[in-house]
Amino acid sequence: MKEYLLHWAATNQVYVIEDDYDGEFQYRDRPVPSLQGADQYGVVIYMGTFSKAFTPALRMNYMVLPEQLLIKLHSMEHVLSCPSRMDQLAMSVFMERGHWYRHIRRTRKRYRAKRDYLVKLIEEHLSPFTQAKVDSVGLHIEIKVRAKHSRSKLIELAYQEGVLLYGPQYEGQYQEGEQSKIYLGFGGVSDDEMEKGILLMKKAWAEE
Questions:
Q1: Can you give the pTM of this predicted structure?
Q2: φ and ψ at 19, to 5 degrees?
Q3: Which residue from 30, 63, 142, 158 could staple onto 163, CB 3.0 to 4.6 Å apart?
Q4: At what angle are helices 99-125 and 191-206 packed, to 10 degrees?
Q5: Which CATH superfamily includes the segment(s) 102-206?
C-alpha cells in the first residue's frame, strides 16, 4: 500500500503530507516505519512536533522536506515565523547528546503503562456495553459503545458529568443498536483522574 501511494504521488506529480504528530509513542517491539522513510521519489513532506513528547511551551515543530522543496523553503525564510534560535540550538544539543532518545524511552514506557491501566478500567467498569480497541500507537484509546443513543448524545451525557470525550469528525445517520466510536485521551491525565472519569462515564451511560 505504501509503495502504491508513493508511486501514485510521483506519477501524478503531487506531494503526500505525513503528519506524524505522536509517532514517538509506538508501543510495539518493532515500530512501524514512517512513509517518508520509504520514499524513493521525493514526494513525502514529513511533519512532526516536540509539543506532544516534550512540552507545548516550546512551540517547536519540524518538517523533513524533499530536496526540491527545501530549496524553495530557504528562499522564503524572510516570511516564516520560527521559534527562538536559542531554543532551536538548545534542542539540537539536547538531541546530539542523546538526551532526547532517553527521554522518549522513559516517556513511552510511562504512557504505555497509562494506556494499559485505562484499558483495565474500561474492562472492569464499562465492559457490559463497551469494547476497547487497544492501539499500539498514540495517546488515546478508541472504544465502541453499544447504546440506544447516538455518539453525540453519549458524548453530551459524559460532558454533563464532567468528562470530555470526542469522536470522529463525521457522524453519519445513527441507526438504533449500532456501535458508536468514541475516543478517550490519556496523555495529560493522572491514574486517579482516569478512574474517576471512567466511573462518571459508567454513571452517565448506565442511567440512560
A1: 0.75
A2: -95, 90
A3: 158
A4: 30
A5: Aspartate Aminotransferase, domain 1 (3.90.1150.10)
